[in-house]
Design brief:
406 residues; alpha+beta; Jelly Rolls; Phage tail protein beta-alpha-beta fold; 3 domains; 23 strands; globular
């Protein structure tokens, strides 16, 4: 065997014509078996490469949009696992490789359909910067965008998912196919409540997005969340409800809970108000790991970097869900954390001078139905700051204690 194979990565094997012919046709079987026996340290990589190449035998078949989104979300995860030491990768080769890898470990369907044909539905990653402008909007399964101009919108799907009521005012007829995905995008300065076709109610906080089927069918009811949302899930023992929040799946049957999963924050938080939920990482390496089960009045904090989950009990759940009623509570939180939340809610940018003690802890409750100026006055009473609002920017300075003149 050529000595070049000793330096091969998994990807290199999947691109090598001799390796491919061995997997598909059995060519050079004895040589490859001898190579593996002589280099056992490479057996795992070769085994995985064989699975990937074997996957090319599958014939294309339709994949529903839930599975499409799962594959889409896991490509970056695959890259982090298998290419940490790889500096450069040709994008076309990588996409095919990544797609096939995820296919093997998730749905077992053919990927060429996904990556080499045009799809009617395209999911875009919602970033904090892109959520700073514009109105809230609903992107239907057929790709139409419905703008929601009110600061707080109320949406309600019927059971068939083909009719949508907006703000108890207008009813819109929609095209709806089973498990076709729609997306609700709520930018900074806006909030929305939506009732899904299964009866589940979801409150979306500012700077959030929810991807969901207009009509549910199958073994589970799965949605995908970026940002913060409060769920009151319609009970159905036979069809569990699942919230996909990047690296974590939240499995429920019928319960009330809050999920905080902002992209700019390193922690993912789940607060359980009522019922039971289970948390399980989506990383394929954790397929057989134990599910973490939560009880009411518990908070789970998952660190996205360390991959560790910490559970806190006997918490005040109202503290974490009061935003649904237009209130912001904070208990010994840093000024910068409070500013960050206000930035999303009022869609403003805070600019502080170097003298502001941004990590100083403050406590209180703010009525977010009030104007930003009123809210900032309340904060300035609790913290040693002054402020000036100029359009979409809030300039914050430290209070100066002037010495009396002699």
């Amino acid at each position: 065997m050529d000595k070049k194979y000793l330096k091969y990565s998994i990807e290199d094997f999947t691109q090598d014509i001799k390796f491919i012919n061995w997997v598909h046709k059995g060519d050079g079987h004895k040589d490859w078996e001898d190579f593996i026996n002589q280099n056992p340290i490479m057996s795992k990589d070769i085994k995985l490469a064989r699975k990937i190449v074997s996957a090319l035998r599958f014939s294309p078949e339709d994949i529903d949009e839930v599975d499409t989104y799962e594959i889409y979300k896991n490509i970056d995860l695959f890259y982090n696992i298998c290419h940490k030491s790889k500096r450069t990768v040709r994008i076309r080769r990588f996409l095919r490789y990544a797609a096939l890898f995820v296919m093997i470990f998730s749905i077992g369907a053919a990927i060429p359909y996904l990556y080499f044909t045009h799809s009617k539905v395209h999911f875009s990653e919602i970033t904090d910067s892109s959520l700073r402008i514009g109105d809230a909007k609903l992107i239907t399964a057929s790709g139409h965008e419905l703008l929601l101009t009110n600061s707080q919108s109320d949406l309600r799907f019927n059971k068939s998912g083909d009719q949508l009521e907006i703000d108890q005012d207008s009813i819109i007829s929609l095209d709806s196919e089973i498990n076709q995905m729609a997306e609700l995008v709520v930018p900074y300065g806006k909030r929305s409540k939506i009732q899904l076709s299964d009866g589940t109610n979801v409150w979306l906080n500012a700077g959030s997005s929810l991807v969901f089927p207009q009509k549910f069918k199958g073994k589970e009811r799965k949605v995908f969340l970026k940002g913060e949302a409060y769920f009151e899930v319609s009970k159905n023992k036979d069809i569990p409800f699942v919230v996909g929040a990047d690296q974590m799946n939240i499995n429920v049957h019928g319960t009330k809970f809050n999920v905080n999963n902002y992209e700019s924050e390193n922690n993912l938080e789940v607060v359980l108000v009522e019922g039971v939920v289970g948390l399980k990482e989506t990383n394929f390496l954790n397929l057989f790991s134990k599910e973490i089960v939560m009880s009411p009045n518990q908070k789970a904090v998952y660190n996205k970097t360390d991959k560790l989950t910490n559970i806190e009990s006997n918490i005040d759940v109202n503290y974490y869900t009061s935003w649904t009623n237009g209130l912001l509570e904070f208990n010994k939180e840093s000024i910068i954390t409070v500013f960050d939340k206000l930035s999303r809610f009022y869609n403003v940018q805070f600019i502080t001078d170097d003298q502001v003690e941004i990590y100083k802890k403050i406590s209180g409750k703010l009525d977010l139905k009030e104007s930003l100026e009123v809210v900032m006055i309340v904060i300035s009473d609790a913290a040693p700051i002054t402020f000036r609002i100029n359009e979409e920017k809030v300039f914050v300075n430290s209070k100066t204690n002037l010495l009396p003149m002699r």
